[in-house]
Amino acid sequence: MSNLSFGISHLFVIWHLKLVIFLFMPQQKAILIDIIHPKMLVEHALDRMEELEELVHTYGGIVIVKKWQKRFAPHPKTYIGTGKVVELGKEGKKLGAALLIINAQLKPRQTYELSEQLRKYKIQVWDRIDLILKIFAKHAKTTEARLEIELASIRHMGPRIFGMGMELSRQAGGIGTVGIGETNIERMKRHLKEKERRIKDKLETYQKGRNLQRESRKRNNLKTIAIVGYTNAGKTTLLNALTGKREYAANELFATLDTRVGQLFLPKRAEVALVSDTIGFIKQLPPELLNAFASTLSEAVDSDLLLHIADASDKHFFQQLSVVDDILKRLGVDQKPRILVLNKSDLISSASLSELVHRLGERKSICISAQKGTGLGGLISKIENAV
Ligand SMILES: Nc1nc2c(ncn2[C@@H]2O[C@H](COP(=O)(O)OP(=O)(O)OP(=O)(O)O)[C@@H](O)[C@H]2O)c(=O)[nH]1
Ligand SMILES: [Mg+2]
Fold first, then answer.
1. Is 237 near ligand 1, meaning CB less than 6 Å away?
2. pLDDT digits (tens, 9 = 90+) for 174-183
3. What's this model's pTM, rounded to 2 decimal places?
4. Does ligand 1 come within 6 angstroms of the Cβ of 371?
5. Selection from 266, 236, 227 nearest residue 387 by Cα
6. What beta strand segments (E) does 210-362 contain?
7. Is 233 in the pocket of ligand 1 (CB under 6 A)?
């Protein structure tokens, strides 16, 4: 008994220590850099930077420098020009920067080169995917979401290690010799492959559980509705409004990473439907990230109806709409019955809302405010007709 209580209090102390470390962890200072085509509009360049900055804030970092470099094409070795690397390294060191974040997906070789060159300034290099993965890792609550993130990280890291191996063996190995990096790299490769397989096996177990649930829902003739949309569109707020759940909704990107399911009573049909909310989409989501979240996204893939919710008040409304359309196509669900829901209607004037609807042309939509609860009756009727 005393052993047990010692164990529990021990765990408690560790947990508290972790919390204290987390609370007092200094925010990491970051330098952001983006490459823009010389002909790109300033407005477009600013938008790209703004979104990256928002991602950094979501992660909990502080942006201390934002820079662009105009180039027709990225530098094959270092992505940004080599002179720029030195300039940013020196400036970053002076300002105490811990991170250089590049607004693109880097090639393994570029990450390796940049990291090498910035090592002496004690600055780590992240690309856009690294940043998204860090945010995911921070928000993941369920074991399944954590496994999916680990899988995505391995898929993102793997090629870098292989790239590093090539670099090392080129440096050290002459003709007919084996590079110094080779044996270790081989070992690392094997270790990663093994780890990837183990994670996939575990995820498969979750998938089997889902399949069983799905079959039982089919037997009971329960309809399923999936809420999908760009991150921060209001998916979780809508789930809560429709089903009376109290899931975490916040003004941050990727507040939700796993799947939540609630029940919605459909009065005309006198039956209950299941509504699920899941991870939000974002532009430039690379396929390996999307694939890693297959398990979580399967709820949307297998649903009877999709509610595509979009933030009508966002100035990038149309761009976000097409990003989501594109991802739904990649998931192979673009032919599924779908309702387009224009959310946050309380934040824009009725004139702007009418203009949006007009610009959508043939595409039918319904305007709501998930937060204020307006338009939900109309939405429920549409759902009843559609399922
Ligand atoms: N004014 C207004 N705010 C809303 C409305 N719906 C959601 N929000 C706010 O928008 C923010 C994002 O809402 P969420 O429901 O977390 O969005 P989400 O799509 O689930 O976001 P992620 O899970 O992070 O991808 C929150 O601050 C909500 O309070 C709305 O109809 N009107
Ligand atoms: Mg959410």
1. yes
2. 444 455 556 7
3. 0.80
4. yes
5. 266
6. 223-229, 260-266, 271-277, 305-311, 338-343
7. yes
Q: Which residues surround ligand 2, an ion (CB under 5 A)?
A: 235-236, 255-256
Q: Do domains 23-136 and 222-386 have the same CATH topology?
A: yes
Q: Which CATH architecture has domain 222-386?
A: 3-Layer(aba) Sandwich (3.40)
For residues 264 and 242, give the distance between their C-alpha atoms in angstroms, rounded to a whole number: 6
Residues 6+ apart with CB under 8 A from 361: none
Q: Measure CA of the first residue to CA of the last residue in the chain; give whole Å.
A: 56
**What is the per-residue pLDDT across 182-222, written as a single tens digit (0 to 9) for each?**
677 788 888 889 999 999 999 999 888 888 888 888 888 88
Question: pLDDT tens for residues 43-90?
Answer: 989 988 998 998 999 888 999 999 999 999 999 999 999 999 999 999
For 326, the token pair is 């594109």
Residue 45: exposed, middle, or buried by beta-carbon count in 10 A (0-12, 13-18, 19+)?
A: middle
The residue to which tokens 């209950």 are assigned = 272
Residues pairing with 223 in the sheet: 273
Q: Residue range 251-262: average pLDDT?
A: 77
CATH fold of the domain at 23-136: Rossmann fold (3.40.50)
